[in-house]
Structure formats: structure tokens, C-alpha cells
Design brief:
- This protein has about 120 residues and is an all-beta fold.
- Strands 2, 4, 5, 6, 9, 10 and 11 form a seven-stranded mixed β-sheet that branches. A four-stranded antiparallel β-sheet has the order 1-3-8-7, with no helix packed on it.
- A hairpin with a 4-residue loop joins strand 7 and strand 8.
- The protein starts with a strand and ends with a strand.
């Protein structure tokens, strides 16, 4: 059974930084492209960033480009989301997800809350 466990969320002031981690167990980590998505209160879950299986390809939603960096350590079965220059509008529950196929996520973490105060 594949499990994804996120950590690193919390409350930070605007302009601050946080690093989220997501560790995958029960599967072959290098088989998955990994993504980060977020869901703000009352809104739909939206794409934030993704990284391919090798780690050499990344993608970001426009609102986080230049502020967030996604990376992975295949030796540790872990994907990271480094978030800097945080804004109140970044407040959301952040989910990591693993993808075996294009344009779909097959496994999800439980989510971690990020709150940015102004």
C-alpha cells in the first residue's frame, strides 16, 4: 500500500518561508512523478508545482513562480516544496500526490496546513 506523509506546515508571517516534505512508502518512488496541490477554504484544490521522476523537470503555477521550488531526493523517497516570500493568499491545505500516468494523480497525502498571516 502506497502512503504519502506530508510535514512542515505551520503558521508564518507574510514574507517568511516554510519547507514542506512528503515521504512516500510502500511503492517505488522513482516510478512516480510528484505534485503539490493546495486547497484554500471554500475553494477547489489547485495545482501548485510538480516534478518528474528524475527530478530534472519541474512545473509551477504562475502565482508561485520565483517563490516556490520543488525538489526530490530519490534516495530518501521524499519530495520537497520550499516556499519563500509567502503571502496571505498562499494560505491553504497543501497536499502532495504521486502520479503514475500523465494528467492524473494516483496517490495522495493527508495534507498539511499552511497559514500566512499579514
Amino acid at each position: 500500500q502506497v502512503q504519502l506523509v506530508e510535514s512542515g506546515g505551520g503558521t508564518v508571517q507574510a514574507g517568511g518561508s516554510l519547507r514542506l516534505s512528503c515521504t512516500v512508502s510502500g511503492g517505488t518512488f522513482t516510478s512516480y512523478a510528484m505534485g503539490w496541490l493546495r486547497q484554500a477554504p471554500g475553494k477547489e484544490r489547485k495545482f501548485v508545482a510538480s516534478i518528474n521522476r528524475s527530478g530534472r523537470g519541474t512545473a509551477y503555477t504562475d502565482s508561485v513562480k520565483g517563490r516556490f521550488t520543488v525538489s526530490r531526493d530519490n534516495a530518501k523517497n521524499t519530495v520537497y516544496l520550499q516556499m519563500s516570500s509567502l503571502k496571505p493568499e498562499d494560505t491553504a491545505v497543501y497536499y502532495c500526490a504521486a502520479s503514475l500516468t500523465v494528467n492524473s494523480y494516483d496517490y495522495w497525502g493527508q495534507g498539511t496546513q499552511v497559514t500566512v498571516s499579514s
